[in-house]
């Protein structure tokens, strides 16, 4: 239900949905350096020089995100690139120059997780550098942690970025020719197919039906209401995420499958997309016992499309494509969640899946940003649509 008074803007809606779905998805890579304490500040100054140059060459490292209330947002270039050079300090603002003493690597991860919640999606930058000293390690060893929003790059790109951040600055003369700026990733509209898929049509139709006032008596409002907390509940600045292990036993009560799926989506957000999608598929097959409740199950699962053939930059752009599969229930009768998860994971990373996605996207730009999987259960008379992640809604088309 929308907040009373002023409507929420796009960023607020994204923040609220993110808070409902879970933590900001990010990547943290930790490197260890052996350096005397007296030289640490000089090293951080060198890191700051590297960051300044990287932001100049790669505008994506200083960009924000626009249209954040949709599944496929766009980049917002920061034309004051880099806007952090005149702060009167030898350290770059995204470098945390205060050395934080912690007990273990686990505490480093926890601290970075809390800081990641403070990324300003509207303005950028969507990454940071933190420095930590471990109490149980020699005094001359420090952890340098790079934390970056997953939409900026993938794991290999983050590793490449950390390597360039830590590398000794170039001694090349400032008058030498500088490399040309790499462009931001393409507008995501260019990567979307003009003709919608069957599943896309089902999703759109289901959501329209659920939000149509004439259908509320039939659906009883299932998934139709956008539940946005009041704007006065917005929390600014970093917050520590709640981390826990989630175990859901769907076999206990088949009649509560919708409720359990919705609750699971609220808790884990877009984490473990392949495992998540495959488990739901196997589960649907398990509950379809004899009454032909489901005919076919269709899924979309993100697959990495980073490649030089698509001109994906080495740093920046976590491009993906959506791998679609339609599986008859009859083929799933003998599967368990574990066995089908393994098969699905193998398929997602197979040459066959990559070839199909190549064919579908070879005439477009380099993919779309990863968010969360969409699971569609196609039944004889009902199409259930469930999307995990930021809006975590469960819909039903009672056609």
Automatic annotation (TrEMBL):
Biased composition (Polar residues): 169-179
Annotated spans, Disordered: 168-194
Descriptive protein name: Uncharacterized protein
The organism of origin for this protein: Aureobasidium melanogenum (Aureobasidium pullulans var. melanogenum)
